[in-house]
Specification:
alpha+beta; five-stranded mixed beta sheet; 7 helices; six-stranded mixed beta sheet; binds copper (II) ion; Immunoglobulin-like; about 20% helix; EC 1.7.2.1; 2 domains
Length: about 350
Amino acid sequence: MQISKRCFGLATGLILSTFMLYACSNETAEGIESISAEENEVAVITPHKDLNQLPVAPEIERDGDDVFVKMTAQITDIEIDKDYNYKAWTFNGEAPGPVIVVNEGDTIHYTLENLDPAIPHSMDFHAVHTAPDTGFADVAPNEEGTFVYQANSPGVFMYHCGTDPVLSHIANGMHGVIIVKPADGYPTDDEIDREFVIIQNEWYKYNDLNDMTNNEPSQVVFSSKALNEEDQPNTDGTVGALIDEPLQTKVGEKVRFYLANMGPNEFSSFHVIGTILDDVYIDGHPYNHNKGMQTVGLPASGGAVIEFTLKEEGQYKFVTHQFNHVQKGAAGKIIVEGE
Ligand SMILES: [Cu+2]
């Protein structure tokens, strides 16, 4: 009896594993390809196939403490690696999307124009208090939605599309940074010579929710967004973007990064090689003031203001100290020139 039970178990196991092998090989054939432009074509949904909507500049207008922000959801090719264009789901044709800067105490009147003909999109600002089902509601294809929020907490915050499945929308490119400047500033404001917005995000196989859910990222990247047009490159999340267009500073200048990790899945261990971070404000809140940090941990959706001074001429790299991600692109460079 014992033996026949075991035989039955073995036979069942064999049949099951044969079936599973068959199922797995099907899945392998259909779902787990290496990345190439040709194969990525497969996952582009039909209404997006011939779309490459030109970037639309965000509209930001201020009237006293009221800030009117208009952005688009749109489908735009983003070069995420050399000669590799990803048909990204974006805000305004950038990935990460444009940086938004408001002041603590502002009222944000936010309008999302959804230029995507096929899929609803939405906006989830981490900088505000609101009931998500109404405040972050979906905007249907070819429609507009307007939402009003108070920005009462200073910091460096993530924003992202919050439409289901959220992972697809973020991993396909719909994320960015909103900075809420503290009403009383940071205690170190007077020391700062240069400011940059630096963002980390990762990419997966094109529009493949299975890959996004279960696998390692294909690329991990840094981008920068312009705060001051004259001294800062404005890039997408492209491998090597901040190596090819390094940040510039001078010996002895105090540099501030508004830093954020979009994920969607991975942690960032942000580190500037060859220096110590003198002042760090976790999530960009002046109250969260830390001194003398070697590495700043940024969870997925975490932010920080970091400040440091490079004391010698040279080329300094910044990385996430998870070096497997550096191998996939997560590095940038600062060129430091003499005074
Ligand atoms: Cu979306």
